[in-house]
Each structure stands twice: as structure tokens, then as C-alpha cells.
Amino acid sequence: MTLHNRMKLEFLGLPENVSFSRVVVATFASQLGFTLDDLEEIKVATSEAVSNAIIHGYQNQPGGVIRLESCLGNDWLEIKIEDDGVGIANIEQAMQPAYTTCSERMGLGFSFMQSFMDEVKVESAVNRGTRIILRKLVKVNNAHSMTEH
Amino acid sequence: MILEFNSAREILLVRIKGEMDMATAGQIRQSIDNRLQQEKIRYLLLDLSGVTFIDSSGIGVILGRYRNLNRTGGKAAIIKPQVVVKRVLETAGLQKLIPICDNEGECLRLLTGANH
Ligand SMILES: Nc1ncnc2c1ncn2[C@@H]1O[C@H](COP(=O)(O)OP(=O)(O)OP(=O)(O)O)[C@@H](O)[C@H]1O
Ligand SMILES: [Mg+2]
Fold first, then answer.
1. Which ligand is located closest to the Cα atom of residue A130?
2. % pLDDT > 90, chain A
């Protein structure tokens, strides 16, 4: 698990920063041999975690800070997204497909993170905040095609 | 994000251009709901060919409008999503509720059962 590159980003939990953060992460990830489809999936997963930090973590109140850190290895990407918001009391329940605490929403966010990334970890403490860790591997075929040509 | 509306009889065609996420979801929801309240609409066609990104917030807007329409006997369909957007819609299983079509004619035939 050798680390090749790392970046850190801190920004306010505002709706306009969701697009900004997913584009930054996808651009950073494009240093590895991810396909365009992979990069789109990374964008959606990042968008979900950052949106959740704003909507649920900070309850849509402006002023909350979101910390994002991303690491690249030889064939893997890791993204950590952290808020200091309300936290999640029951993580297992929150991650159930279609579970939501918001009547207007569909409970799709965690399902998307799980479908589009290889690993999703959630760490949370009530009234302290939430940290989402997402990992994705470059598929063998892509990694080979990068070195063989 | 740009919205274009076109309505005729009981059909409302909404063309959405740009990204559908939490930054744009509120405005899209409001604008469509305004039109649905002002006019007597039974068929809602969402042309997503100009949408370059969608996540759960965007899908929430589509599903919410579909549910409201469904309650009054109306129907909805999605026209020509780009490949990346279609993949996200299908991952959510949206096509099981809302048909995804290649063009307006196909959509209308499917929804109304008539030959437009
Ligand atoms: N950062 C967070 N802080 C506090 N609670 C969270 C956080 N992220 C998720 N949750 C909780 O987990 C639930 C499920 O999240 P998920 O993203 O799957 O669905 P959603 O955000 O409610 O709906 P959607 O993602 O479809 O808009 C949320 O309703 C919320 O209660
Ligand atoms: Mg969510």
C-alpha cells in the first residue's frame, strides 16, 4: 500500500461546493489508470458524501467546515470526507438502502457510494461529526493497458 | 442549469440542461411544480439529453414529481439521458418506475398508448 500522492482540501459546507469538490477529486484521481466510467462513479460517490455532510451533518446551516483528503497508491484511490456535524447514532441503519431521515429524500446516497466504490467505511459520533472513507481500485485490465502500450 | 418548458394539451415537456445535484435540485423542483400547478398536466416528459451529471438529489426531484403525478393518475417519462446519467438512473432502479425513451414520440406512445 505505498502512497504516491496526497491532497487535502477544506471548504465551507455550501451547495455550490459539492460540484467543486467532486470535480477536484475526479481530476486528482485521473492521475491513475481509471476509466472515464470510473471517474464518473468517483464523482457521484464524492457528491453523495459531501451532500450528506451539508444536508444531514450541518442540517443545511451555512458555516460548517468540510475536510476532504485523498490519497493515491499504485492502483488505488482513497477519499476521506469529514464533517463536525450532528453525527449518526445508528450507522448500520443509516446505510440500509432507502433509509432516510428526510421525507423529501430517497435514501440513495450510501447505496450509490457502495455501488460505485470498492469500499465504504463510516465513522461517526453523535454531536461530534462523521467521517466517510471511500476506496476504489484501478481494475487490472486498465493498469496493464497503461504499462503495456 | 437551464430549464425549458413546452406544454400542449395535457403534456408538459421539460428540457433540463446542466448538472442535477443539491445545488440545483431546489430550483428544478420549484419550477416544475409551479408549471404542474398552473396547468392541467397528465404527462410529464423530462428531456435529460442536456444533463451532464446527476446524483441522489437530482433523482429525488424526478421521483418526487413522479409520485405527485401518480397520485392524480398522471404519468412521467425520461427522454434521452446521456450514458453516464443513464447508468446512475439505472443503478437507482428508476427505469422500473419511470420509462426511459429515445425520443418524444416513443415516450408519448408509451404513456398515452396512442400513435402520436
Ligand atoms: N454526514 C452525515 N451526518 C449525519 N447524518 C448523516 C450523514 N450522512 C448520512 N446521514 C444519515 O444517513 C441517512 C442515509 O443517508 P443517504 O445518503 O443514504 O440517504 P439520504 O441522504 O437521506 O437521501 P439521498 O441520498 O437519496 O438524498 C440520512 O438520511 C441521514 O440520516
Ligand atoms: Mg444522501
1. 1
2. 90
